[in-house]
Amino acid sequence: MDGCGGEWLSTPVASSCLENVTMENSSVGRIYEVMLQSTNSTKRNPQFVGVELLQSFKPLIIPCYALVVLVGVFGNYLLLYVICQTKKMHNVTNFFIGNLAFSDMLMCATCVPFTLAYAFNPRGWVFGRFMCYLVFLIQPVTVYVSVFTLTAIGVDRYYATVHPLKKRISVLACTYLLSGIWILSCGLVAPAVAHTYHVEFKDEGFTICEEFWMGQEKERLAYAYSTLFITYVLPLSALCISYLCISVKLRNCVVPGHRTQSQAEAQRARKRKTFRLVSLVVAAFGICWLPISVFNVLRDIDIDLIDKRYFLLIQLLCHLCGMSSSCCNPFLYAWLHDRFRAELRKMFTCHRRIGIGIPANNCATASVVL
């Protein structure tokens, strides 16, 4: 799962001219000389037909991305705001959820604007050499942090539900774990960043910022498949196993003592709600990241398996599907929880009362554990 960096949004010119890139070592670094095909031949290239097709979908794609950014940033910001402002919410579970919200916000802010600008700007990458390397570092790191944090949340909920008597990890251990997630994500991105190059086509007036593994095809495939396994197959398997165990535990859970019919029905309703929520969490992760994972596998096996006329459009739609996970996570991990919604309403009610002169001490804060 390449996320949104590196080779992910290769321009058609970069794809068609990749074989013509040569490098020379000098005292000032590497010099890239890129020879393009003639103007007439490139116009007949199906990849350039794909550019025209992508441009025709621009009025539809940009509003969809804008909606993803709006919902993702606003939803995750509110989630972070409530967690930070409510001291009694400062626990391990909510720190995981807060880290997920922060990485999703950063993912929306870095992946979406630069991806759209790079895809639709005829001049290619216009943000300079420094931003080329910085953005292509931050983009996949935020994706990997989100994925690994989702996995940590699944494991944490497994122990909280299946083994409630076992000691939970401390806040300090949680801090170390979250730091490890960020460090691991940076480490996974390092090989891709090391093979990312900023190439200027001065005569043609455009620039590319791409990931090239020239002469290292086996290494590139090994990196691509291992990254896919670590960032999609393994987390999805961990989520499925964790939430399956949670579902089995809840199904077999029996409240001691005599229960009335209404109490039994209420317990069954809670179990059904929890099972639906668990199913939504696993399904959202699997569905959001499946298209880009399949796309990357097909591209790595044989790029000709994907019609060049639809390559860029399919690529961007798969990317949009992956980015939509940043919208799903706040709803799945917070908004669907009654306690979080109650705390958010209480917080806004408190602010309104303060605004009209009612003392703030009338606004009590309840303990919330998501």
From TrEMBL:
Topology within the bilayer: Multi-pass membrane protein
Keywords: Cell membrane, Disulfide bond, G-protein coupled receptor, Glycoprotein, Membrane, Receptor, Transducer, Transmembrane, Transmembrane helix
Highest rank taxon of the organism: Eukaryota
UniProt GO cellular component terms: neuron projection; plasma membrane
Compartments where located: Cell membrane
Keyword Ligase: no
Function of the protein: Receptor for prolactin-releasing peptide (PrRP). Implicated in lactation, regulation of food intake and pain-signal processing.
Name by which UniProt lists this protein: Prolactin-releasing peptide receptor
Organism: Danio rerio (Zebrafish)
Lineage: Eukaryota, Metazoa, Chordata, Craniata, Vertebrata
